[in-house]
Specification:
Alpha-Beta Plaits, Alpha-lytic protease prodomain-like
Length: about 500
Amino acid sequence: MPLSKDAQREKTLVALSSVFAAIGLTSLKIVVAILTGSLGIMAEAAHSGLDLVAALMTFFAVRVADRPADTSHNYGHSKIENLSAFMEALLLLVTAAWVSYEAIMRLSHHTGLIKMNVWAFAVMAISILVDLIRSRVLLRVAKKLNSQALEADALHFGTDIWSSAVVIFGLLIVYLTDIFHLPDWLRQADAIAALGVSCIVIWVSIRLARETIDALLDRAPSAIVAQLQQRLTLLNHVSEVRRIRMRRAGNKCFADIIIAAPRTLSFDQIHALSDGVEEVVREEVAIVHPDEEVDVVVHVEPITSSGETIAEQIYYLAEHQGVHAHDIHVREVSGKLEADFDLEVQADMDLQEAHTIATRLEEAVLQNNERLRRVTTHLEALSDCIVQRQDVTRQYHEIAHEICQISNGIAGVNSAHEIHLYLPSKVTAEVYVSEHRKAPELDLVLHTTFAAHAPLSEVHIGAEKIKRALRRAYPNLNNVTIHTEPPESSTP
């Protein structure tokens, strides 16, 4: 998520304060370097001038990096921070090369007269104090807001403290040489100090360059990837982790993950699994970069799992072809398996088209399981229309009572309850009989109780027995729905 306005303002202000600090230090060091003729201080002035350029780049980078993604930059503008840090590393290397050349020339030709005064030491002491304050402030805000540009600036200014200390040491040696008439070669300590500053600058440059190049070339954070691979394989329903691709841009981490999962999972289950993967990625990134934004894309590929049942295969293949299978039965006959099930198709479909769909599904089921030798489908017309009915339970209380008795004889005493009988709306039984010359067709909804801990397979068999017994007793029953439930005392 984008930074808040307060966070953006804090980030901008700390970058701007670094610009002003660099301007002041650069100006002060140039003046003192000219007055004293110190190459070490001149090197520090050049270094501070570079700091100013780096601070300006950082200021520009942090203002641009937090812009939201747009049509031309779909992943946002965060990499401007990495580019800023890379340019800073290049400038550091150029400065170090120039200072090293000048120092070697002075050491080779013994040139460069230094006029020592208190300002030479004062300006370096001020430089150390300012660098100490701004490096700490930059690092605090960089860690808080996860800004690589500010972190690079903080690292840069942190090394300035050590380089300034080296210059002070060189000036002190020159000063002591003049006071105590020490050997003349000690007067070259300033040039040697300049070389020391250059070495520090080169070390910082290489470190910055390596980190920024890694970010610009999308190098994956290998430690996070390895740990992520291990954790994702432990997630429920993750059959295989096929690919993990990660990269960083500024204070953002992008992850592209492909996993394999059982093909029988529902859409809701796959969505929940994707959410779980995203959460694991955020947790792992937070361990290394607590405040870093994470953008995760999860792609789930379906595979056949080892624990997939024949019924799940049939259900999946049917859904894959746009139809729905239910009431699936699998039997073993002479060591071979046979399956039959109901197949729901649209009510307005003709028999030829429906049979073609059923045949194609039967062939797919047989191809997916070599143990099956026969598959039989029963076509059902799927109707999504709402039928109009009237509740006639009171008018048919004798039939309702008899239905309860039949159900109780199978499920147990007082198991049948909440019975409802329905007729088409605005049609009376007498009119129906006179028009159709037979008893009216009734829809039935019946609730029955079974033992709370009875296996569901036994409960289903009991419900089917009740349904067959009722149809034998009342052939005019049309739709029969039996709701099975445990006794009320067992219901949570």
